[in-house]
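It would be a great kindness if you could assist me with a short task in structural biology. A protein sequence and the structure tokens that stand for its backbone fold form the material at issue. I should value your view on which stretches of the chain appear to form regular backbone elements. The record follows directly beneath this note.
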Amino acid sequence: MKAALVKTDFHFPGQESVYHGKVRDVYSIKDNLLVMVATDRISAFDVILPEGIPYKGQMLNQIAAKFLDATTDICPNWKLASPDPMVTVGVRCEGFPVEMIVRGYLCGSAWRAYKSGVREICGVKLPEGMRENERFPEPIITPTTKAEIGEHDQDISKEEILARGLATPEEYALLEKYTMALFKRGTEIAEKRGLILVDTKYEFGKHNGQIYLMDEIHTPDSSRYFYLEGYEERFAKGEPQKQLSKEFVREWLMENGFQGKEGQQVPEMTPEIVENISNRYIELFEHITGESFVKADTSHIAERIEKNVTEYLNTL
């Protein structure tokens, strides 16, 4: 059985503290550095599922690293190096307490809200008569608050963000500008791979007074992709789109009576289910990057990470 890394307890040189997120474990190192370990945990409906997914952390980390490198001309980002397939080391930023979600198409939670009669999301007015998976005339930004673990992110409007002082008007204008430019770049890269970047989220923070892009970018955990081929045909017939995203995990959970609500049980994740999810993530990786996925050795994941990161930090 391929091993999956679901818990970490590293002791890196200069380590000051550690934060265990839903999927990533972030180690704070002296001199304002962060070591971000993409674990093999998987979350859906803001719940961490009981089984890890082999290679998921490696895939997410390598996709994010690739796209961070491909967008440095748009805005500065936190990445310094990726010393291990599952790790990125970068500069610590003071994060804005909002996530910038940008949508090019009406689907997912926005479609569910629209179908129930909602015509305004996060202060953005939506046109009448739209259908599921329809392209917006222009991409829209629908921010959310960044919730604590176990809490749900809440939609928030630009006006509320400014009123609550979560960003200054100047900062927010730059967040919007970067969000739209990154989404445009992601859309162009996706198109070359025969994909549509449907929606995604970005997180930003400040480092030395400057706004930086943080965390991950354009991964299947933070983004939804459709296959470009057949999109128009499926849309015309009102058929579901062929997706590349984590949505298939949510759909499996919903089919088995789980939506993260109180009293609901996560369905059993059999080895077959786990392997299927792992294989789907490999498919995602290869489509999104246009490269073959090279599986890292999973026999001693924790030891490998500790060694690679320690060696890197000792060179600084």
